[in-house]
Amino acid sequence: MDWSTHFPTAAAGKPVEIADIGCGFGGLLVALAPRLPDTLMLGLEIRLQVAEYVRERILALRLQQPGGFANASVLRANAMKFLPNLFGKGQVCLPPPPPNRWEHLGLTRG
Ligand SMILES: C[S@@+](CC[C@H](N)C(=O)[O-])C[C@H]1O[C@@H](n2cnc3c(N)ncnc32)[C@H](O)[C@@H]1O
Question: Distance between CA atoms of 14 and 58, rounded to whole angstroms?
Answer without folding.
Answer: 19
